[in-house]
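Morning. Coffee machine broken again, so started the prediction first thing and wrote up yesterday's gels while waiting. Chain of 91 residues, entered below exactly as on the submission form.
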Amino acid sequence: MSDGNPKINVTWRPNIETSGNPGSHFYVKLRKEGEPTWLNLDPIFNQEHFEVADIEPDTPYEMRVVAVDGNQETESDIQRIIASDSGKIYF
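Came back before lunch.
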């Protein structure tokens, strides 16, 4: 259940031209900026977007998308985001 905190819609585009197979599924890793531990969100199958809910407003987060292909995982670059109460997201 949402507590009124902002949500972030994450969308990615797998690069199938250079890697061939983008992976069997994806997941999003999230942490507050400066924290050492990543939170691994639920795996995402058959889609290229995900909603991250209930983040704290005006708090810097780091996020990355991970492509999974068997035992191989490929992580995207880290993206820094801040979501505000107004609905605006800052990168």
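The mean pLDDT is 81. Going to sketch it on the whiteboard this afternoon.
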